[in-house]
Amino acid sequence: MEEQKKTYYIDVGTGHITQSATDSTWSFKIYATDHEIKKLRNLFEQNYSTEWQNFFRAHVPYVPYHYDQENDAYDSKIQEIYAIIYKLGDEEAKQHIEAMHILPENPKL
Question: Into how many domains does the chain fold?
């Protein structure tokens, strides 16, 4: 039996996922199963952890941004988050993400 998709509203900046369009501000509308939402929430949690690592790393001035593994991990997770939102999003979400040019030309969805 296939899981039923529900409507969710996503704010990437805060990592907020809700089923109510009026609870808080949101940027993207997606249609996802419980399993897909768990995966997206997990990615947001991983990114939150990476943000803290970046915060502490930022206080080590001799490591340039482009040589920093934590920044690479953050960038990779953000791309993965946007790829999932693109895959599950409504047409407006897809168009917005395409305009951002954040995903590779042929993202692995």
Answer: 1
Asked if residue 108 is part of any domain, the answer here is no
Residue type, 77: K
Number of CB atoms found within 10 A of residue 19's CB? 10
Q: Return the structure tokens found at 24.
A: 């808080």
Residues 6+ apart with CB under 8 A from 73: 50, 53
Cα separation, 78 vs 74, whole angstroms: 6
Maximum alpha-carbon separation in the chain: 54
Q: Which residue has the tokens 């409504």?
A: 90
Question: pLDDT tens for residues 56-101?
Answer: 455 556 555 555 565 677 788 899 999 999 999 999 999 999 999 9
In a domain, 1, yes or no: no
